Structure prediction request, 499 residues.
Amino acid sequence: MQFEVVAGDVARVQADVVVVNLFEGVTAPGGATGAVDAALDGAIGKLIALGDIRGKTGEFTLVHTFGKIPAARVLVAGLGKAADFDVDAVRNLSANTIRFLRRPGIKTVATIAHGAGIAGLDAQACAQAVAEGTILGAYRFLKHKAPEKDALEIERVQLVERSNERVTAMTEAGRRGVVLAEATNLTRDLANEPANHLTPAILAERALELARANGLESEVLERADMERKGMGALLSVANGSHQPPKLVRLTYRGRSGEGLDLALVGKGITFDTGGISIKPAANMEAMKADMTGAASVLAALGAIAQLAPKVNVTAIACCTENMPGGGATKPGDVVRAMNGRTIEVINTDAEGRLVLADGLCYAKELKAASIVDVATLTGAVTHALGDVCYAIMTNNDGLAARVEAAAAAAGERTWRLPMWKDYDDIIKSDVADQMNTTKRGAGTIAGGKFLEPFVGDTPWVHLDIAGVDVMPAERGWVAKGASGYSVRALVNLALAMGA
Ligand code: BES
Ligand code: MN
Ligand code: ZN
Prediction:
């Protein structure tokens, strides 16, 4: 789908449908809706008077124009109460709108910067949110299905802006929204991909394609490289699989001078059977998405390159399967990470922290000034927080606050979990420097506490996205299946660091 911001009058534009809006309680529409209403001889006003259009959130009314304007249809989208309306609502409305419009005869759409009128929201923020919501809402994963007979694909969406002065800045904002949403959709594609179609080797190849397309520096560490570096934790997870592990690094340099301002480290388990501590059969297929952290950091780096902030960022994707093969790690085995720390593997299903341990050590070796890791780490995070937000753990309040702000700007909710020293003991082992699970509850914090020793004093934030990475149903910008949570937050963080 093509998205663009154009100057013009939405009542005069050529499209299969024109989208305008209405706040709850408004009886005489103004702005763009008023202009379209006037061109339709007051049809929208009459529908309001009849009570057929009330402007409630989620209300969509399709009105036919019978040749009174160039567009054959007008869609009036309800915005709800003006006091509750914000940029997040614009993004969600745009996603719901594009889904509503997936019907015969609609290939081209004209819309407006919802929220930039009487709600008084920032016009650029609204343009970006319309772009993001539209492209996120149009997402579907159809790769492995027979093509539909009458594929209902919208080809073009134009955001029509009246004010010539505002168009340039809104075009830039719209482009930013497109880049952010397309990176999210790339993550969704990778996470939805079945594990037989996305092995560590294939994921590494996709990362290299992304690097080539965006002029990124790239490197793939093979098993032998990892052995040389002493990445015994990551390698211990790969032991049960026939698929070779890959550690992918992509680097973007947006400022002059050496050094890395930020390393993004992602868990890339292309399938998690649990290993010898094997998972139950029910819902195990969902574990094809256990590489979402890796996909998120890789896709974020592509978007960062396209938006070009003045910051140096690297992505490290720790990729392997977790399988119960003959060479697999056994409960009780002790393995050694790149920094020399030994780990007693109590449960081979707590594999994400093992691959991240070496990924974090590698970020330290590259001297990253700050580190954010992203992982579908614990089922426990769903018990704590459900599918509404993701968990944040940190050793640095300042960096955590920046990540929280970046997530909020993406319309993503986050929640901080405590990392008090009081929790240090829960991963203590009798035979090694630490163990990979806890027997004392606090499963998600145990994941954070496990990772903490591998970052030392580098400012670090850990995102446990296991509650939100795959969704049972659509919800505004969120797609059914892989959601793409955290991708836009990571890009926003790099943009803020490079501003
Ligand atoms: N990949 C899972 C976590 C997960 C569960 C993600 C459900 C998405 C949905 C992770 O590797 C795992 O298995 N964690 C274990 C840890 C436990 C053995 C300490 C868990 O949460 O049960
Ligand atoms: Mn697991
Ligand atoms: Zn896992």
Summary: Residues 2-164 form a domain with the Leucine Aminopeptidase, subunit E; domain 1 fold (CATH 3.40.220.10). The longest strand covers residues 262-272. Residues 247 and 318 are 5 Å apart (CA to CA).
